[in-house]
Amino acid sequence: MSSTAPPPADLAKGPAGDERLLRTSPLRRLLGRPELGSVVGAVAVFVFFSIVADSFLQTSSFSTVLYAASTIGIMAVPVALLMIGGEFDLSAGVLVTSSALVSSMFSYQMTANVWVGVLVSLLVTLAVGVFNGFLLTRTKLPSFIITLGTFLMLTGLNLGFTKLITGRVSTDSISDMEGFASAKKVFASELVIGDVSLKVTILWWLGLVAVATWVLLRTRFGNWIFAVGGGADAARAVGVPVVKTKIGLYMGVAFAAWISGQHLLFSFDVVQSGEGVGNELIYIIAAVIGGCLITGGYGSAIGSAVGAFIFGMTSKGIVYAEWNPDWFKFFLGAMLLLATLLNAWVRKRAEATR
What we know:
Number of strands: 2
Strand order of the largest sheet: 1-2
Shape: globular
Radius of gyration: 22 Å
Number of helices: 15
Structural class: mainly alpha
Largest sheet: 2 strands, antiparallel
């Protein structure tokens, strides 16, 4: 039995034709982008602080905003990919501190070149990511429970090991050790372009956004991420390696935590063992503001970058406006709710126009 393609007139009717053959208007494609709501929000926040804070538009202020955004954005990118894959990681904030502590204490106690400590830290941090992913896929427990347990364990280990080894709640300075200067150039240096000084974390951030966007939109692994987020059982039924995909996503979060941890260490020379608690919520908020759904299967790396940029503008804009910083959490919560509502509305509009 043969079939013929429907005439052009039938294609325009919508349901009667194959929607894969329908021409999509630019407006419809725009409405379907996950980051649309966050871009609108970013423009609104930028205009708002440009009006209420005179120094907000200064070049030096903008570089400070970008730095604040990059410290969140580096982690928000892999957290967004993990959320697209349908999972959470509540240990991401303290894992950053764990990475810095391992690097610092291993280098100092072993009197080794700091690059040895940096590489050991990478291995340990990735191992934590593998542990989270492996335990999640083996036990079938919710990622909330698995990573909450990891969060508590790492919080205790950070404090316990630091006090056991150093006798204090902070590490010893490694600024005079071999390799510190070169490591600082990689993780905590500044680039001067004209009159603007930019932290190297901004380059790390933009690089991760570019790589993550390419992975999501141009690779098979990106298809797997969306598939497992949309439904793990259905993805497994069509041959998607669900276990490997989820472990890989947790390793991505761990890798970003390693980068952030090394920046923390080489920026301040020492690390406080209690840092990082609560930051995991900020990473998730940036991803949600950027268009990621709590239920998984929807979002983008670019959206997470915009969400982090909104965070940077808000945190520094309040300072430049000379407001009480106690209001910051209020604005952050309000933006989270507004962004979630706006993202839901955009998604419904996009589905309605199909």
